[in-house]
User: Fold this.
Amino acid sequence: MSIRVKEWQLQKPDITLNARNAEPDLIKLFRELEVFESFSKDNSFDAATFDLMKHPATKKLLLLNGGLVIYSFLDSMLQHEGYAFFKPGPHELAAMSAAAIVAGLLLKARVRDYIPSGIVAGLAMMAAITFGVASYVGGVRINQLAGGPLLEAKYHRDEKCLKLLPEDKSLPVVEYTEMTTDYWCSRGIDEVQTVRVRKGLFNSYQFDLREQTKAIRDYKQKS
Assistant:
């Protein structure tokens, strides 16, 4: 038996599918079955999409950190003194205290408005760095304002051309690196080097070595 093409008839299906309604219906089914609730919350995604400037606590902390960064940069550019001996202890204490305080405040604030744990940890670390640096710069400035006067003391270089030794043994030694050895070896061991020294709070000394720094720079440019 043969079938001719003209005798074919297109039959209409009984079920029609609306593609626009298929996706919402599927999502609705998933919600009814609680499929979405079975997945754990992605905290890393929360931290990546969290807007620090919209939460009042994180916004204030960002502004405070920004202010400390600007202060540390500007004041370090204006200062001409530095510690005779760098003691990391006080600055480490300032950094750890700042991190602990910031973490505590943010954890308290997120009870009212949610803050991801990653954001809390990141801002605590940021506060530790900014407060640690600011404590160094601010300490030099406080010593300058509240310490004793800036005095001129007599120093001599040592035999290895790495240190300046004071005639007054109560004063601190000025230490240099090997990068300045050529310059100091060009100076006589008996030649007097005038160094500006300030005795600050808690017997912490500071130097103003602008004169020596300029002399070393000029020497390197000529050689």
Summary: Residues 150-222 form one domain. The first strand starts at residue 82 and ends at 83.
